[in-house]
Amino acid sequence: MSEQTTTADTKTAIAVTIAGSDSGGGAGIQADLKTFSALGVYGASVITALTAQNTLGVTGIHDVPPAFIAAQMDSVFSDLKVDAVKIGMLSRPEAIEAVAAGLDRHRLAAVVLDPVMIAASGDRLLVPEAIDSLRRQLLPRALLITPNLPEAAALLDEAAAADIAATRRQAEKLRALGARAVLIKGGHGEGPDSVDVLLDDEGFMELSAPRLATRNTHGTGCTLSSAIAAGLARGLVLRPAVEAAKAYLTRAIGAADRLEIGRGHGPVHHFHAWWGEGGK
Asked: How many domains, in total, are found in the chain?
């Protein structure tokens, strides 16, 4: 399926991102909306936090009050016919509670949860006491969760998986906590290939792609989870949505060095299919 093709000419696919804002534009809400647009999906947003952030790191976080998170959700979901939801940065338990209540209030089912904890720069985006809230309140409400290796370990209070067998065991434990499906991303692993492990009702599936040599990996997790949500919004079932998202992200990472953004970890190239060499 073409990246620009929707499943029906008469229906506009709509996805919503519930996440933090990245003032540098490489991750968070900004990456999600770019991904939705690149994949032919109309994107709306619920902002949970503002970050003062660039390619070098995060210098400040301003949390949106939970009542205003709820107000944004009610405004968006009472009007738009939303096909899928991606959830990203939720830095505090109160924000997690507000989002969980909103999901229940609006009976949202196609939910992709990316349990964002640490930025590419190494800055913490989630206070430690929020991990239990995330585990208890959002995992059971998610169709799919997409932790990387350190995030999966933190959710389970274990060491990070060192091989595929350990990754599979952690996926089983995370699914036992209530998520209907688990995708553990292998970007933090070792070896020539980055291997993601998916566990769903059909069992295990591994998705492998060459590990590309670039420092421009800011927003990879946000981009993958929002690409999966975009696929779901277009009518794909879970496995094809995950496969298409993995392929899109791999191309976006491969084209990342065409961009010259900042002095640190630059973003992936969300619009690689449309922009020419040099990002122009």
From this structure: 1
